[in-house]
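Give me structure tokens for this 205-residue protein.
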Amino acid sequence: MQTNCFLFDVRQLNRKDAFEKAYDALFYESRKEKIGALTCVEDKKRSLGVGLLIEYAFRENGIEYPTISLSKKGKPTIEEGYFNAAHSGDLAVLAVSSFPVGVDVERIRPVSPLVQEKFFTDRERAQVQTEQDFFRLWTKKESYVKYLGEGIGALRSFEISPSSPIYQEVDFYEKAWQGHQISVCVQKGEPLTFTQVSLDDLLKK
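Here you go.
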């Protein structure tokens, strides 16, 4: 399975008819139930976007609706490979690979200094001069935690700096997209491609 990060602009689901058509096209009932339980329209669009990406990415790799199971720490897995999803603002993203992978995306916005103090080390805070700097670092840390299959509590257990030993085991790929920051963490030396897809792409069978 080629390592890829798929991007989907959820604003394509703004029209009610587009949302309903995409929702009806979903195969996984568990995703439909999750979407139905959400009360915020924006959250529904983002969750639907992730569901569409999952099914699309599997089809692109010749895998029709595999069984998704959860690890002991709640990370979804399939027998045929690895995948990880995230969403924020107007963007849903999904990373897939034959090897462990983690992805995070965040809409760039003001952040309280208290967040940096809680989750960043002194050397990490020294790297942050702008909101973009903050989210470049934050999404890297989140993607690494998700690569490991750990929870957000692990963010303080390691440091990402130019001399960090983490870079001996993994690579990070970054992408800025219309006010959002994306980071993907992959096995060292594994190439990655970013691919933006449309709603028409996702609904093709």
